[in-house]
Amino acid sequence: MGESLIDRHVGFVRALREAGVPVSVAEGLDAVRALRVIDLAERESLRAAYAATLVKRPAHRPGFDVLFDLWFPPVVSGAPARPGGAAEAGKTAQTAGGAQTAEGAERTAEARARLAGLLTGGSDAEMREFARAMVERYGRQQAGPGRQNWFSYSVMRALSPETLMAGILREALAGRERGGLAERAVRDQVNAGIRRFEEAVAADVRRRIAEESGVERIARSAVRPPLDQVDFLRATREDLSRLRREVHPLARRLATRLAIRRRRGRRGRLDFRRTVRTSLQSGGVPLTPSFRPPRPHRPELVVLCDVSDSVSSFAHFTLLLTYALREQFAKVRAFGFVDTVDEITRFFQRGTDVVDAMTRMANEADMVRFGRTNYGYALERFAERHGDAVGPKTSLLILGDARSNYQPPALDTLKALAGRARNAYWLNPEPRAQWDTGDSVASGYAAVVPMTECRNVSQLTAFIEGLA
């Protein structure tokens, strides 16, 4: 390999690691060996070789593809792409005020007609070529005084592909009844084509920005982290929707791990008769006591969850987890708090839509007095009103960032609750480096209940696996 390809390989592997895709040194060397036996001029062969050696999970593939397109672009700027049948790439003719001239409007209409054809019958290669031409024509916009940059939204606004649906349906369903399976099939095909066009435009915009600003700079912001690396405190609504699929497997694993700990931790009651019979072998001295096997039962769980605004995304995920845990435990009681506490189990009955449950909880639950998080007061009220929820069969799970707005932490109350429970755990969504900064009393609580950093699904999975 030439020196430039080595540099690109090293940079590409480093970018994958920074994006959350685990790549070991050995896997990087495997990729180098694979490059020796393929035609480097075949870009898709190069992509396949890298994917086969570096990508281990399907969730990592989208980020891999984005970074591959940045580090090994299909084209370089300088010779604008010219899709067959589309308008000539170049600047759109506009008046000084920014409105399109008659010539520009005609060229836009031609481009929309070409796009309509691609949405229903174009190949991926044709779509990418057309997208490059449209980015060249419409993508460069003012980004500030004396500054220009490339944007996807200006391309999508100029061509408005979603407005092509009516014309495509009219042409595709000529003489046939509307509203049936045929129309649905055409709609699905067009919507899939629009998504392909959006992705192709976004990829070309990223390529052009990388050429002008540097691939390392755009790579840091171009790739969304894998789902298991999404930070709970920064999760978007879309992220939380995707995370719902992860909840039920985690709930099953958590219940299994806690049950294993109970089986290993309990030997059952002393079996006096068997102990006496066994002692006859040692002259009546009971050297080896015998125990009855413990009665099998599903573990019980109490969840105490901070639902304040500062950890709202984390609270949303943990409430989803609590909802799923109801199917795995014999008894689950959930409590939410901000500066006072209320039981929220009633909102998460089986068969209830989880979104509706959270809406009702926000409107009806009594968890707020003054609106500022107060762990100490919430713990005291929990012990006073619901202390009987925690007993020798209970696992206590506390979820929150341990930031109490400089109020008394009520450590003795927490110690009493943890002492009554079978076991207790605390999951903190903040990075460990931020513990004990500002109003955080993380170390104080961690001295009473083992506290684990839990910022994403990967860390939550590691916590669950560590319970065995």
UniProtKB/TrEMBL annotation:
Q: Where is this region: Disordered?
A: 81-103
Q: What InterPro entries does this protein map onto?
A: UCP010256, Uncharacterised_CoxE, vWFA_dom_sf
**Coiled coil (residue ranges):** none
Q: Which SUPFAM superfamilies match?
A: vWA-like
Spell out the protein name for this chain. Answer: VWA domain-containing protein
The organism is Nonomuraea rhodomycinica
